[in-house]
Every structure is written in structure tokens, then in C-alpha cells.
């Protein structure tokens, strides 16, 4: 089967607060999920994606920070586990589940992460820069945490209001698909 772009859940959504569970076997179903997650992440221009963002509560994340770290490469991680944290970095984070928003979040500057690759083989890597930030951002998603949980309540509530409006606007847009077309032809 060909890879498919899946729908990304928009915060707030109860499904983004639910904890994901470990994958018991890295089989073809998991590899198909990973393929769809890469497709979805690239389609949305992201550097990472966690399975819960597409409504799948399994411990699977994909990452590709090559836009900012040309020496890196796309990585899929099954059951990622951060073994150690070093240093501090403040990074302006965004999230595909919170479109158009970005806020400074403090994270560890370097992390050592152990995971299973797409073949089910255990790997351990040390990440820094954006990759370290993204690994922490994605493993948060697996625990039901999003980056706005790390900012002030005031900022979070302002973002909540903007997301409510974004959802209303998107719902109206899909409700009246004829309105744009008829409006466009009326102006001809
Ligand atoms: O695309 C993304 N960019 C990003 C930028 C700074 C810190 C974290 C990220 S991850 C984000 C994609 C996403 O929402 N993953 O869950
Ligand atoms: Ni995110």
C-alpha cells in the first residue's frame, strides 16, 4: 500500500492527552504507520510527529531535522526512552497540532535516547540541537503532554482561544464548500 497523509489532531483534543502504549512487535503494520507518519509530517512541513497526533496511541515517533541540521537524517523511533539529559537550551517550539503558534520552552540541550528502529533492532543515539529538542517534544506527546503545557497559563489560555477560532473557521470552511466557488464566479 501507498503511504497516506493522515489527519493531524488539533489541540485541545482529549486524544492528545491520552498516554500511548509500547509497541510489542515491530511488524508490517507498525512500518505502515511509520510510512504514513513520515508522509503526514512532510506534507505539513514538520520536523517531527508522534503517533498520538494522528490518533494512534502507540509509542512511535518520526523525526527529520535536516532542514536545520544537514548532517542528520530521517529517523523513526519505536518505544523511545530518554536515558539521560545534559545541559539546558531554550528553543522557540511549534507543534503541528497547534498551528501558527510558537513559544520558548526550556529543554535539555542533549539527550541520549534508546529506541527500536523500523527493523525492531535496538539503537542508542545522542542528540543535540533541534533533534534533542524534537525528541523531547515528541516523547512528551507520547505521555499526553504538548509544548503549551510548559508555558504560562496566560499564554496557554490565549492560544486555546485562537485554536477555538481556528477550529470554528475550519468547520465553516468545510460546511460551505460552494460559497468560495460561487463568490469567485460572482466576481467574474
Ligand atoms: O515541526 C515541528 N517543529 C518544531 C520546532 C521546534 C520544536 C519542536 C518542533 S516539533 C514540530 C512538529 C510536531 O508538532 N511534532 O510533534
Ligand atoms: Ni508537536
Summed up, what is this model?
With 188 residues, the protein is an alpha+beta fold.
Task: Provide an overview of this structure.
The chain is an alpha+beta fold. It is built from 4 helices and 7 strands. The chain has a single domain (14-174), classed as Peptide Deformylase. The protein has a 5-stranded antiparallel beta sheet with strand order 1-2-3-6-7. The protein is globular and about 50 Å long. Bound molecules: ligand GNR and nickel (II) ion. Ligand GNR is lined by residues 46-50, 53, 91, 93-97, 133-134, 137-138, 141. The site of nickel (II) ion has 5 residues, from helix 2.
Structure keywords:
34% helix, Peptide Deformylase, alpha+beta, binds nickel (II) ion, two-stranded antiparallel ribbon, binds ligand GNR, disordered C terminus, five-stranded antiparallel sheet, 188 residues, 23% strand
Quickly give the structural class: alpha+beta
Beta content: 15-25%
Strand segment count: 7
* CATH class placement: Alpha Beta
Computed over alpha carbons, the radius of gyration is 18 Å
| SSE pattern | HEEEEEEEHHH
> In the CATH hierarchy, what is the architecture at level 2?
Alpha-Beta Complex
Helical content (DSSP H or I, runs of 4+): 25-40%
Ranges where pLDDT stays below 50 over 5 or more residues in a row are 182-188
Side-by-side strand order of the widest sheet: 1-2-3-6-7
Number of helices: 4
Shape: globular
Amino acid at each position: 500500500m501507498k503511504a497516506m497523509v493522515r489527519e493531524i489532531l488539533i489541540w485541545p483534543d482529549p486524544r492528545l492527552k491520552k498516554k500511548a502504549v509500547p509497541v510489542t512487535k515491530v511488524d508490517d503494520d507498525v512500518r505502515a504507520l511509520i510510512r504514513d507518519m513520515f508522509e503526514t509530517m512532510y506534507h505539513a512541513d514538520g520536523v517531527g510527529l508522534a503517533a498520538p497526533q494522528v490518533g494512534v496511541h502507540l509509542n512511535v515517533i518520526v523525526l527529520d531535522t535536516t532542514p536545520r541540521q544537514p548532517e542528520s537524517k530521517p529517523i523513526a523511533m519505536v518505544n523511545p526512552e530518554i536515558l539521560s539529559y545534559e545541559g539546558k537550551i531554550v528553543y522557540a517550539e511549534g507543534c503541528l497540532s497547534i498551528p501558527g503558534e510558537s513559544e520558548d520552552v526550556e529543554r535539555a540541550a542533549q539527550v541520549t535516547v534508546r529506541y527500536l528502529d523500523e527493523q525492531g533492532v535496538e539503537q542508542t543515539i545522542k542528540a543535540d540541537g533541534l533533534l534533542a529538542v524534537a525528541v523531547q517534544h515528541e516523547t512528551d506527546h507520547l505521555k499526553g503532554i504538548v509544548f503549551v503545557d510548559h508555558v504560562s497559563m496566560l499564554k496557554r489560555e490565549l492560544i486555546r482561544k485562537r485554536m477555538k477560532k481556528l477550529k470554528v473557521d475550519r468547520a465553516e470552511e468545510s460546511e460551505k464548500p460552494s460559497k468560495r466557488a460561487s463568490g469567485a464566479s460572482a466576481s467574474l
